[in-house]
Amino acid sequence: MGTQPDILRGASRAQAAEDAASELAEAIAQPDATTFVFTSSRHDLSALSRALTRRIPGPVVGCTTAGEITPHGYARGSVVGFSIPRSVAEVKLFPIRNLDCISVMELSNVAGEAYDEVQRQRAQRPGVGAFGVLLVDGMSGAEEQVIGTIAPALPGIPVVGGSAGDDLRHVQAHVLVNGEFCSDTAVLALFTTERPFVPVRSQHFEPTETKLVITGARPEARLVTRIDGRPAAEAYAELVGCGVDELDDEIFSTHPLMLRVGGGYYVRSIRKARKDGSLSFYCAIDEGLVLTIARALDMVSTLDDCLSGAAEAVGVPELVIGFECIHRRLEAERRGRSEDIGRLFARNKVIGFHSYGEQADFIHINQTFTGVVLGEAPA
Q1: Torsion angle of the four alpha carbons 68, 72, 77, 80, in this order, in degrees rounded to the nearest 10
Q2: In the chain, at which end, N or C, are there fewer CB atoms within 10 A of the end residue's CB?
Q3: For residues 42 and 13, what is the distance between their CA atoms, to the nearest angstrom?
């Protein structure tokens, strides 16, 4: 460690909560810092939160995962984290509770408080930059409302994030805030810093000429019942060239759908085919939307290009806070590319987790890597 406090990164594969917290704290605990912790839901979360609170000074925030991105690449069943001292960035936390009944006004108030904090920081340190990291319960179904309300109310302040997971059980995800793992919760972490930074988004798909129209949907449940006037699962299966009984995670991750928003295309992932012939999605979907079948590109080279471009913008990365869709990881494992991606993440100092969806560009998306690249202090 140098004369100035460093951004510390670490991970533990210990299965006992006390051991995991002790090992992680040994690697990343430091005074006058905010600590981020991403953990497998397999741990005893109550014991883990108590142990982290005892061992790590200052605010601790984080969530449960569908997999972890450690200093050494991919992991499962682990606890990973980083601590960022105030000398690098001021971090202000804005907890958001009761997502099942939260109003747009309440979310707007959170955004207003965050924006006022940025203005206060800028008055003290002219030219300081700001970005937001948003962690949301990935089983709440509230991501679109949260990011869609908060991000537009923070003009010029990029907001990225990930949806907390539960190791693909799809039962209950948790966000860690104020010393407790809570469901139906989100937290906005607002960073203000003089360091160079840039938000990133990488997807390894491009649109094809094959389009479809959602003609039946239940948006509140993220269900599509009909595509092009036919049962959704049947129509989708025919478009991608398989039988309805063959629809599984591999088909969905290889042939996702894309939605055009503004001048860009964003991935909308299917979660599963249901017995009633409908399709369950990981994100909001509605009648009348025109979607496009996607074509896969090389996932390693596209990610490498994204991170290399960020390094050109901010210099050598000191930290990348990253959120990668669990479907990307599953695809990487099927294609034998997980070690390649893990090495790429390790080389670029990525710390984060595998999510049930990602937040970027004001919207909730899927099968994407999003994050923020934080550069070193100017010489």
Answers
A1: -60
A2: C
A3: 12
Picking from 65, 17, 71, the residue whose alpha carbon sits closest to that of residue 38 is 65
Q: What is the DSSP letter of 267?
A: E
* Both tokens assigned to 30: 């430091």
Which among 286, 272, 266, 268 is positioned nearest to 224, based on CA atoms?
Answer: 286
**Domains in the chain: ranges and CATH:** 8-202+301-375 (no CATH), 205-296 (2.40.30)
Cβ-contact 179, 95 below 8 angstroms: no
H or E element in which residue 369 lies: strand 369-375
pLDDT in tens, the chain (379 residues): 345 569 999 999 999 999 999 999 999 999 999 999 999 999 999 999 999 999 999 999 999 999 999 999 999 999 999 999 999 999 999 999 999 999 999 999 999 999 999 999 999 998 899 999 999 999 999 999 999 999 999 999 999 999 999 999 999 999 999 999 999 999 999 999 999 999 999 999 999 999 999 999 999 899 999 999 999 999 999 999 999 999 998 888 888 999 998 888 999 889 899 999 999 998 888 999 999 999 999 999 999 999 999 999 999 999 999 999 998 999 999 999 999 999 999 999 999 999 999 999 889 999 999 999 999 887 6
Statement: the pTM of the whole predicted model exceeds 0.70: yes
Q: Between β-strands 186-193 and 129-137, what pairing exists: parallel, antiparallel or unpaired?
A: antiparallel
d(CA 80, CA 37): 6
d(CA 347, CA 146): 32
The residues, ordered by sequence, that sit 6+ positions from 24 with a Cβ below 8 Å of its Cβ are 10, 11, 12, 37, 52, 79, 80, 81
Bridge partners of residue 293, in order along the sequence: 257
Gap between the Cα atoms of 83 and 90, Å rounded: 12
Rg of the chain's alpha carbons, rounded to an integer? 20
Q: Identify the DSSP state of 271.
A: E
Of residues 63, 9, 59, the one with CA closest to residue 40: 63
